[in-house]
Amino acid sequence: MTALWILAAILALPLLVWVLRWNGEGWIPQGDQAIIAFKTQDVFSGQPPVMGMRSTSANTVEASAAHHLGPMQFYLMAPFYAAFGWQPIGLLVGCAAMATTFIAISVRQAWHVAKWPGVALAVFCVVGVELSMRAVLVLPWNPYPPTLGLVAVLITAWRLVRGGARALPWFIGTASFVLQANLYYVPVMAPLMLGLAGLGLLRWWRRRGTMWPLPGEGSAYDEEAIWQRPGILAIVVGLVCWAPSIAELFLYSPNNLEELSALAGGTFPVVRILEAVAAVGVVALVAWWTMRRGRPSRATAARCVAVLIGLGVGAAYVLGGSARAPYASMAWAAPYFMVGAFVWPVVGLTTRWWPRVNARALLGAGGVAALVAGLLTAPSAAFASPGTAEQLRNSDTSRATVDEAVKLIDRRVLGTPPIEVLGGGVQSAFGDSPALMLELAHRGYDTYMVRPWPNDEDDDMRSSKNAPPKRVVIVLHETKPIELIIPWEWPSRP
User: Which of its termini does the chain have fewer beta carbons within 10 Å around, N or C?
Assistant: First the structure.
């Protein structure tokens, strides 16, 4: 097992390099990433987050104001952000830690499925995602962290199709994270989850002679302590992962489930409902084909997962159309897994060949290849990608605005009054304003900003509608100097 952890560490090396590089470039969270930083900071406050990030659902259905499914990302990043004193590097380290965990889960679960051939498929997917996404993998914007999480989802699903029920808690944990991060993953993962649910019900019936959750005749797992049974562990993991989202249903009205219902109602006309029914039929056919001869082989199980995730990616494109095509980059794991699953017999990666291979030599060769790939993409090539260049450009713009605004406040304002931050343009309102609010909050100011959101949210304490009357207002402009408005009631410097 030590060899597996060494391999996982090698695969995670590029993440460490990217963290150091972003920090060295002076990256700061701005725009949505600053909002994510606020929500991560709120985990240790009296108002912990119960909602995910805002979605762009209104662009699809005007009547919908849905959030993404949950705040799991904020809770996982919070200890790292706090440990680094709420500095930007804490967010980067938190994202790298989550990505490393997904890599370790993928490698370990792949070993349980098919030993070194399975590990080879996991390495192929991980390295493929790293080469495709590169340095943005360690940024906190919610489309980025789940990309390696999807690799872990597919590998654990592979083990489940093979009949490895002990992968169920791992699947529930990783799938919960991916689903909560971004609504795009709901159609992507829907066929896979439906297929696994169908397989699970069929196997329960065959082994126990009854329908789940009726216990029936019992199984080998019933002889274990209740806290060791994979089904019980999966339920506990699921409840922990979804507890904030469940709480949100009772704390807010309209809640996110109602908004999601409005989104679904406007997204699924009759034609798409028929398409969904056809997709469910295909999923059922795949499940039946997989189980028709009992326990499927490793290759058959991998192909089953590949077909189901391929259906999901297709469904996501059909539902979102070409306007949502850029979101497909979040599902890079899918094509790599599909290629690996179907190329398996072509390149001779069947299990009968692997006992003849020296495992240490294989580990050494794979480790060196992964290390070389990581180091080649990390320092220069990764930061030459368009996504990285855009992130650095936005960060530099916001940092310059923040520095100028902070100097103006220090020069003009006495004490730490409440401050409302307003933006006079797109970049200043949606990019620079959250970055300035975050910096001012770290300096002890209560900050507020206009929120173009129709419903109450879990971070409304920072909304302008809740700002006190006696406050300082700072207006960020994109084509003229920053404007500072100080009411006569608040003392200011001459």
Answer: C
